Amino acid sequence: MKYFDYAATTPPYPEVIQSMAEIMQKHFGNPSSLHQYGEEADRLVRHAKEVTAQILGVKPSEIIWTSGATESNNFALKGAAMRGGRTQGHIITTRIEHPSVYECCRQLEQIGFDVSYIDPASDGIVRVEDIQNALRPDTIIVSIMHVNNETGAIQPIQQLADWLKKVQSRTLIHVDGVQGFGKLPVNIAQWNIDLYSLSAHKLRGPKGTGLLYVKQGTELFPLLAGGGQENGYRSGTENVAGIVGMTKALRLASTEQSALSERLLVWSEQLKIAIQSIEGLVLTNPSVSARHIVHFSYPGMKSEVILHSLEQQGCIVSTQSACSSRKAEPSRVLLAMGVEREHAASGIRISLGDQHTKQDIEHLIIALHQTVTQLRPLERR
Ligand code: PLP
């Protein structure tokens, strides 16, 4: 089987597995304990933070370990909205966010916050002017993703942050960086953003570990009350092995980013050309998109049917984002782009990673041809 669902999750690096197993066996202490077991675990967590801070070009005190990007996104949004005990105010986000941002905003609406959901243009990219038009004096936070997890569309982070910090610097800007890091250059300091979420398992690290960058001086309401770990921002005994594993994965992913990007460009172009040459398939990718995601639809055919046919040909792909793929509804992201329902209901996401080879891509192209040949008699016209 060939796995083409790297945007859902990735196989951990062998180095990550090895170091995590070692830590669980040898350094199982609680970082809050005062004895030598605790001190060793605390040293590992602090060292991981220093290394991660260096990779991200930020201060160690600005990194908060979390259980993954779902928690990071919830913490960024709820933490910012509810600081100082507030229950009112305005939030701007987009209609194409991951459910961990989108559904979190829906919850905040139920509590009393106002949320503006900005639609992208037909190319999947949100226009800064549309966010500018939605800004209000009481806007607490603007939350936007770097790269969309279904279409790969790259959002204009720098342009947005430059404008926002000039016109209303008190409004925070949060970036969900999950699908961008390791695929595109990331520069948190240059972007001048306040909050940035990452998840380890999208970068060949462990599941259940992530981080939130919180710019120094940013006040957030802590979601988890307890023993006051993570400078009081996030209580709970630290996932020492996960944190060390994530740091290793971040280091490898950032070192390999530019070489991987070159390979991904060649492969994604090859795939896009092949898709465009197959009668019946429609390429959905916007022109400005990250190279690890290729999205197409096969109107008249259901996504699941295409997915299972490709699986029979030995290729694992995805229908939409992993978190939404069990829902019967067509993708919210595609509908927001103005894609017709029938096209949206027949979408397939191919996502690539560093372990792929030229032969894997050739195998996938043959499988795409075979799938369409096999399914053509079933097409609903
Ligand atoms: N944000 C984006 C863009 C994602 O693709 C994902 C995972 O699919 C998440 C957030 C959630 O990450 P996690 O699985 O670490 O909770």
TrEMBL record:
Keywords: Iron, Iron-sulfur, Metal-binding, Pyridoxal phosphate, Transferase. It comes from the Bacteria. It is an enzyme of class 2 (transferase). Its cofactor is pyridoxal 5'-phosphate. Residues 3-364 form the Aminotransferase class V domain. GO terms for molecular function: cysteine desulfurase activity; iron-sulfur cluster binding; metal ion binding. Its EC number is 2.8.1.7. The keyword Manganese does not apply. Belongs to the class-V pyridoxal-phosphate-dependent aminotransferase family. NifS/IscS subfamily. This is Cysteine desulfurase. It comes from Paenibacillus nuruki.
